[in-house]
Amino acid sequence: MELLKVDSLYKTFKKHKVPAVEGVSFSISQGEVLGLVGESGCGKTTLAKIILRLINADKGIVSYKGRELLKISHSDMRRLRKSLQIIFQDPYASLDPRMRIKEAIEEVYDIHNNVPRQDRKNKTTELLETVGLGESYLNRLPSELSGGERQRIGIARALATEPEFIICDEPVSSLDISIQAQILNLLMDLQKRKNLTYLFISHDLGVIGSICHRVIVMKSGRFIETGACEDVFKNPQHEYTKTLLKSSIL
């Protein structure tokens, strides 16, 4: 079943003459992991923010389960955000350094009003256990955690609304190689257990190859190649894709 569809999306920022996103179209099926790869500045994160309506598109269509996200009211979009979540690149920047982990996760319940107050501690503990941590982390501050632990908290926050679709925006690029593998394994396990749908953004085809079913290669705001990961890796058609492959460890 088609979960998300993007059609002819455009975005140009006023200070730049070159479009950040130029006429891109794709769809994601329920339970699929779609990779989006390209160098920094090619438009990947801009596209992600448009999908979640964190920034506006100039024109185009984004539909989720048949609903046009760019046209619905802000209140309807807020309700839909329970189903559409994001895991950010920098787990430290996405956490309030003054908030204990318990408060950081329970803040999500306050925003979405999806967990009764008396159930919140148990729900938060359960989420921490789901991402490989536990109750002992409830009262810790972000500064007391490693980068990998902070990213696990970011994943727990994304899971707190029980979403169907998650954008993973470079979720392992700021982590050590050994920790990257642990976080990727966690994301793959969660995807299978919960039948999650991911748009997985990275600049590294090696990372994309370890988790994704299909891949889109993006350059200067445009999609230049797309296909099953195995096909693109074995027989890349575009010179830019070949360059990315040479710089990745597959």
Structural notes for this entry:
The chain is of the alpha/beta class and 250 residues long. Helix content is 36%, strand content 24%. The chain contains 9 helices and 10 strands. It has helices at residues 44-51, 74-80, 101-112, 120-130, 147-159, 177-194, 205-211, 229-234, 239-246, and strands at 2-11, 21-29, 33-37, 59-64, 67-68, 84-87, 165-169, 197-202, 214-219, 222-228. It has a 6-stranded mixed beta sheet, sandwiched between helices. β4 (59-64) and β5 form a beta hairpin. α3 (101-112) crosses α4 (120-130). The longest helix has 18 residues, at 177-194. The two termini are 30 Å apart. The model has no long low-confidence stretch (mean pLDDT 93).
Summarize the structure.
The chain is of the alpha/beta class and 250 residues long. The protein is 36% helix and 24% strand. The radius of gyration is 18 Å and the shape is globular.
